[in-house]
Description:
The complex is a heterodimer of chains A (80) and B (151).
Chain A lengths: L1 E6 L2 H7 L3 E6 L4 H12 L9 E4 L2 E3 L10 E5 L6
Parallel strand pairs in A: 1-5
Antiparallel strand pairs in A: 1-2, 3-4, 3-5
Chain B lengths: L1 E5 L5 H6 L8 E8 L3 E2 L2 E10 L1 H18 L2 E9 L1 E4 L3 E9 L2 H18 L2 E7 L4 E3 L18
Parallel strand pairs in B: 1-5
Antiparallel strand pairs in B: 2-7, 3-4, 4-6, 4-8, 5-7, 8-9
Helix pairs in contact in B: 2-3
Amino acid sequence: MKTLTVKYFAILREQRGDAEEQLRTESVDAQSLYEELQAQHGFTLPVDRLRAAVNGEFRPWPAPVNDGDEVVFIPPVAGG
Amino acid sequence: MHFKITSKTIAVSELANTLQHERAGACATFEGWVRNHNEGQAVASLEYEAYAELAETEGNRILDEAREKFDLLAAEAVHRVGHLQIGDMAVWVGVASAHRGPAFDACRFIIDELKARVPIWKKEHYVAGESTWINCATKGEFSTDDAGPSS
Lengths: 80, 151
């Protein structure tokens, strides 16, 4: 088991009902973590519409994670 | 060269002053404003949210790329977050160069890349009462479109 910090933004923050949480997981990468959380919280966006960031940097899927990492799932962006 | 996220009104004159350069013969700026309609719907307001840490990293990367591609003397950009009203400025980009060509081209490049890559999201609040996160629909005809830029 590893402990991760997950931050949520925009549509994911609303669907999770929280901006940040610490959780314990067996997931070895951000992709399987998202699928685990999606099943729990009913996130509508499929993983292929998201990008992953680990410790403040974009990471290509499946984006391996280690104990203590901060994980952010990036919904489709819409700045401007 | 800096890209910043701010929750305050964008201070244009202060930003424009940072572009001053003795070799500069051209300055191009772009302002993105909140407009009152999108995709046929009347828009009441826009809510912007950013993953500020990564947004600033990625935004600065875009300014660095612009400096490599174009002959620039200065480049600055700011994106606002929070709940904005019609007419408010959401984003400002400014560049300076010796001649106008690189200034126009770099300004366009920077705003296009900011919109495509930087982790900033917007939620449209409609006059009719509904609201939606742009580009995040999973049903309907715009579900995979790059729909709904403000600018």
